[in-house]
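Worked Example 4.2. Consider the chain below.
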Amino acid sequence: MSLPLHQPVLVLNRLWQAVNVCSVRRAVGLLFTGHAQVVYNDDSDGFQTFSFGEWQDFSEAEPHPDSIAAVSFRLRIPRVILLLAYDRFPRQEVKFTRHNIFERDKNTCQYCGGRFDRRDLNLDHVTPRDRGGPTNWENIVCSCIPCNTRKSNRTPREAGLHLITKPRKPKWRPFIQVSFGVKTHDSWKHFIDVAYWNVELGEEKS
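Applying the procedure from the previous section yields the following structure tokens:
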């Protein structure tokens, strides 16, 4: 189990939409400065929100094993917080990586249209590098080994090949990303359908 201050906390914007995940340390800081409130579901009265002081009183009145210790009090670990002045849905640029190029091209050779295992795909510079072709979203595509061999150090036109899709930089996507496998807290279920969503947790520096 991770250390209490590094455990994940779901972050909601002012419209109660899940927009991010932060550490308990970061969440407590947002609560203390008045930028956020704790969202708590007691299974009877529905969701309640607590300011830092109210959450401190609640933690004292109803202690819980999942708590962190301060100098003069213990604070229950918040699992969901609500930002009080943020109603946007933050976006994050897709990183230019091999994995994301395969994702963009759907593991499909962009010359013959065949779908392959990633082990059987190369990343090809549409305009060869020695002709000034850059290494970026607009000049890198997935290519199967036969097409890559046929193209060699030529342009698609010179090799008698045609791109099935013009390579472009993917659109922006939200912090909360669709995938599977990351364990989430039970209190997140109302905000994130774990059958479809999985929160990508970023590393935070303390």
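The longest helix spans residues 52-61. Confidence is low (pLDDT under 50) at residues 177-182, 194-206. Compare this with Example 4.1 before moving on.
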